[in-house]
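Tokens help. Our protein:
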Amino acid sequence: MDPAPTLLAPTPLTATPAAVCDFVLGAAIAADADVVWIEPSRGAGDTYGVDIERHGRLIASGTLDARLAAAVIARLAFITNIDLLAGTPSTGAARVRGPHAIATLSSTIRPGRVLRAEVHVRKHTPRAVPGAGPVAIGPGTQIAQYVVRDTLGSGGMGRVFKVEHTALGRTFALKVLHGRMLQGDGAAQFLREARAAARIKHPNIVDVVDFGYLDDGRPYLVMELLAGHCLAQHLDAALPARQAVSIARQIATGLAAAHSVGVIHADVTASNIFVSEDGLAKLVDFGLALLRDDPRFRENEAVADYVFGTPSYIAPEQIRGNRASERSDQYSLGIVLFEMLTGAPPFVAESTRDLCLKHLQAPVPEIVSPHGAVPRAVGDVVRRCLAKSPTHRFGTTRELVEALTAAEQALAATGWERWLTP
């Protein structure tokens, strides 16, 4: 029989919301809990229940006055950067430090007639001495339930390893943040990548299955292990139009799924598209992704002094300092499609400044493919994606998918039927 759950200590009438919130979170972290629920008590409209669970089992519970509970939830919202006035369920995250442990909190707060909060807790107890170097990773290294088998590569944010799940025997790709990235916004960006990709379950989006921290504080995420090649490695020459449109249609379908759950990729490039041997295309690397339910997200709002994105693929509105949107993803995918059709991106310059000016001002070049004339339907899709103004692109990414599907069907026509398509 499971042991009875521990009751949280009664809350003094003089306790502040901040103190109660810190007490509940501290109790959860100390107990190695993974989720905290703060919800109205059933049958009692003037009280809230606080339940702390570990691996799906209740380990502690308590009761709060409804007004105090609402104030505690507001404190949670403040800690994890959630706007309670958003009117829709919102998710935020923060890393907190206690006397004996560090934990990442991921809160989801649901507004309405009454507030409800769900807090996922991931505890990290660093054992590395301050100032020590990062944990060494190589073949045979054990990271949680994964054993490192090989190194797959390294990028600007981190290194990627081939790992094997010790219980399941399945292989995955494990990405670890570079130690130097901990000093800035790297860890938060890494967590954002994990949350964004994990929110989307779609055949054309890389699947993120796990997230955690090394003993030196570096976060890691675990993804499906992809077999095939990066699209950028095969664009030294143009692709046949039918293959290019197929890849673009698959990525647009994945983007439509991402946009439907509030995720904007914000860095669609040939380097972030993976193509398997059987032609399945997947979008990877959500390191710059934006989450629409993040209270810090405001479409068309000017951002800081930095422009994030890859210069060859960045949309004009991003260059002007506005945040990326669904239509910015369309623009970047249009660049990728142009590059697949012709073997080169539409805009090339010797400096980043001149390249950005071309995105802002230069007309879209003629689409010339070494494989023959490009059907008008395909060219129309490219030109509409590359419209300078977002309002002149497709209204939704789903409309882009429909246009690419129609173009793909036209390219697939054979015999006399091909003369019926533009």
Notes: The longest strand covers residues 44-54.
